[in-house]
Amino acid sequence: MSSIIQLLPDHVANQIAAGEVVQRPASVVKELLENAVDARATDIKLIIKDAGKALVQVIDNGLGMSVTDARLCFERHATSKIRQAEDLFSLHTKGFRGEALASIAAIAHVEMKTKQDQEELGTHIIIEGSKFVSQDVAVLPKGTSFAVKNLFFNIPARRNFLKSDTVEYRHIIDEFQRVALAHPKIHFTFYHNGSEMFNLPPSTLRQRIVNIFSGKTNEKLVPVQEETEIVAIQGFVSKPEFAKKNRGEQFFFVNDRFIKSGYLHHAVMAAYDGILKDGAQPSYFLYLSVPPNTIDINIHPTKTEIKFDDEHALYAILRASIKHSLGQFNVAPVLDFDRDSNLDTPYHYKDLEGATPTIQVDGNFNPFSDDKPNKHFSNYKKPEPTANWESLYVGLKQDTDEIGHMTFENEEVTSSLFNDEEVEHSVHKTYQIHKKYIVSSIKSGMVIVDQQRAHQRVLYEQFLVNMTVNQASSQQLLFPLNLFFSSSEMNLIAELQLSLMNTGFVFEENNSDHIVISGIPVNVTESEVSLVLEQLLSDLQDGIPESSFSQNDTIAKSMAKSLAVKTGTHLTEKEQENLVNGLFACKDPNVSPFHKPTFITMRVEDLDKKFAL
Questions:
Q1: Containing domain of residue 594, as a range?
Q2: CA 199 to CA 186: how far, in whole Å?
Q3: pLDDT tens-digit profile of 335-369?
Q4: H-helix or E-strand containing 191?
Q5: Where is the domain boundary, 177, 200, 223?
Q6: What stretches of 410-552 adopt beta strand conformation (E)?
Q7: How many domains, the chain?
Q8: Are 175 and 265 in the same domain?
Q9: Same-domain pairing of 139 and 224
């Protein structure tokens, strides 16, 4: 029998390896930026076209490569970072496997220009799908330029699996921010389709965070710093009042390498225990420095997960450091039995003497006098008898009857739930159970409604009608709201602005780091605006739907989730009735916008069976 095992050709092996290294354009951005950092560059430019599908180019002023290195860097497992296996446990650089460039060259058109400082001429190499097209000498500046064009041109199936340009662009921004935050001393510039998106000059760590996320980031940050034999921690966490619904601004760096760690995240959340609202997520930018031989970074293909030697000690140190910082800056309550802060004298009253109180007495005042009131009460007028006082109550009964019958939009009960003969036209008394369910009787038994899901369905259909059929009405604000967001969040809001205006939002102006809202939907209060927008941005983390209907549907679901009455809220009897009537006036009252049942029915026969012996 002939042998059936054979060695794969190099270009096939490279394409297989590319599936592990290059998942999307953002993967190329990560690899090229990290190579530029390892080359000791002080100025790095990232140029993107069509969300990286057409072009990803990184230009740096680093060390550059010789002619031999320029050709050799595209070979598999060719690297300058390690020489022996032991080097894996003392890494101080980003890339080390030597597969990135070989994998990228296997699935794209690559053009590389590089020159060392001491050389007069540089090297210009063009590769298409692992095939060397040309290699020439060229007059170039110091450093290296990598241009990756037409990603996945020879693997159409992989290219078809890429998301929309909006989603891919957001992933690129995430990778760019991670590298830029890890190296604040390097000048980073980011261009997308010819427009400058970021220009980050060398700065301190705090300033780099502010430059990337803009807005009022500076006033949100609380510094964290701790140094022990196990780990040195520095960075910033956010104040509890600035916590958000999403987990966008959460960064861990270990030895200047971005990582993801659910275990360390739990340590941060433990430090905030008791001072965060339910579901709120704090922002943090934490930099951990540990001895390289105490970690293993080669446990995940993308190198975003790390194994620590002593995770328990690291957990305790991180939690204590953050808790100490929050207490030190009076963010978290501190126990001090020696003083009562309520009795502290304000600083500007410290050297002031107390003023002697004075009493003014009107010696001419006589409570039994029939004279007119004195000058202090000169504006007092004796009330005159009101003629025809009965007219004050005309129409009052009619008004109260109208108020008593106010319900949600479309009060008619659909016949999909009950048969016509089962519907009792008399008003049924409703009961609230555990501030979660509403029970109402029907002819065949009773109906039990989940108040939160029911309200979500009512609001969802109202928002959809306003956005697609009717012109949404707005309530004008006396004082416009200024809401600050990061640059990526501002891009999302700009794309959703038309749909948000259809719901009733009125945008007065859009700036680079904040928006000004002068009008809001009638069923949204001023205090709920920021919560609604934060929830919407959180729901759209995976991308904005391309069709307008899908956008409207997503926005309606998100706003309904934010504004619906929550479990644990007490409802009056009238509110309960309005909610039940509003639910059964919906087109689809059976399920919430998230396809969960809104109510169940129990027949009298079912109850009889429960009591049967």
A1: 430-601
A2: 11
A3: 555 555 555 555 455 566 667 777 777 777 777 77
A4: strand 187-192
A5: 200
A6: 430-433, 437-442, 445-450, 474-484, 506-510, 514-521
A7: 3
A8: no
A9: no
